[in-house]
Design goal:
Blueprint lengths: L11 H20 L2 E4 L3 E5 L2 H14 L5 H11 L8 E8 L4 H8 L25 E7 L2 H8 L6 E3 L6 E3 L4 H8 L4
Antiparallel strand pairs: 1-2, 2-3, 3-4, 5-6
């Protein structure tokens, strides 16, 4: 796993100077790492660059410059970098209307179990988060197949939100396969 270290981060001052260009680079990079699943779910597949950006942004927003606070951010976000045997994604559940969001995400629906949210608790009896972090583990044969051009399909099996993308766009698949090197 490409671990992001304290020494590899920019200081708050240096980041402020380079933020506009860095942000534009990451936004362009994420276009090849984003996959819509139906009308309300988007997966953004993370890598070292996207996670580095998230860490730098959190440090900037929270004005964190002390070692302990920086290490807390590193500890929270480094596990989101793929380690060569998996893909890791941020899942965004998007409903603009708060009443619809509450009805669709909480009221009366069964829970969906996955390798998700290993970083922290994201739901309780009153609410669930609209952002979840997911880990997809791949067997060596699967990785080999993807590297040789096998098609990647992604879907959600939940009875209230069944969706399947049978063929991931070639540019997205190519970006994700690079995470297995």
């Amino acid at each position: 796993m490409a671990v992001i270290s304290r020494d590899s981060l920019l200081s708050l001052e240096a980041y402020a100077k380079s933020r506009k260009d860095f942000r534009a680079r990451v936004i362009a990079h994420k276009k090849n790492r984003t996959l819509a699943l139906g009308g309300h779910v988007t997966l953004i597949f993370e890598d070292e660059l996207t996670v580095r950006y998230q860490i730098q942004e959190m440090l900037r927003i929270e004005k964190t410059f002390e070692e302990e606070g920086i290490q807390d951010e590193l500890d929270a976000y480094n596990p989101l970098v793929p380690d060569g045997t998996n893909l890791k994604a941020t899942m965004m559940i998007e409903y603009d209307d708060p009443a619809v969001r509450k009805r669709e995400l909480v009221d009366g629906f069964d829970r969906v179990y996955a390798i998700a949210d290993e970083d922290l608790e994201r739901e309780n009896a009153e609410k669930t988060s609209s952002v979840h972090f997911l880990r997809f583990e791949f067997a060596p044969a699967m990785i080999d197949g993807l590297k040789k051009g096998a098609a990647l399909a992604v879907g959600i099996d939940h009875p209230n939100y069944p969706v399947r993308v049978d063929e991931v766009a070639p540019n997205v698949q190519a970006a994700l396969v690079r995470d297995f090197s």
